[in-house]
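Q: What would this chain look like folded?
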Amino acid sequence: MSEQVTNILLVGVGGQGILLASEILSETFMLAGFDVKKSEIHGMSQRGGSVVSHVRYGREVFSPIVPEGEGDILFGFELMETYRCLPLLKPGATVIANDLRIPPASVLMGKERYPEGLAELITARFPDFLLVDGQKLAARAGNQRAANTVLLGAVSKRLDVAEEYWLQALEAMVPRKALDVNRKAFLLGREL
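A: My prediction, written as structure tokens:
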């Protein structure tokens, strides 16, 4: 195991399964023998506000918060929230984002417009960018709500952790009745 700490940020809006995804990430890294620290910031998350979760793992981790400009992977559940968190990343970081636009209240009230061309702007700054149609793949697995697990599968391919630990963590963290759909969604994400 290297001395390096890997910094992962999960961002989106309340209700997208970000907290479950961060729990699965943390459980996976613990099963693989890493020290893990996790922290969440909920901005009116129950009302569709911003949610940011920090997950850090390595041989020894001292703080749960990813320092600004030190993120290795940004795992975005909504496109504008993904774009908004780019300053947290280091140059050359990986960005994996769901191709989903959830208009904030200011857009819904007609005070602002949802920005166009976000995927292109992200790609210009971070060439290691994967845009995922999480809802489509989750529907293929059996439930659109498993988009978070599709994205988790896509992220898992960027990390040097054996698939068995990911599947064990899914089994431990996902309710039994949703396990088959989530396992399928995860594997579809890994195929990307």
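The chain has a mean pLDDT of 92.
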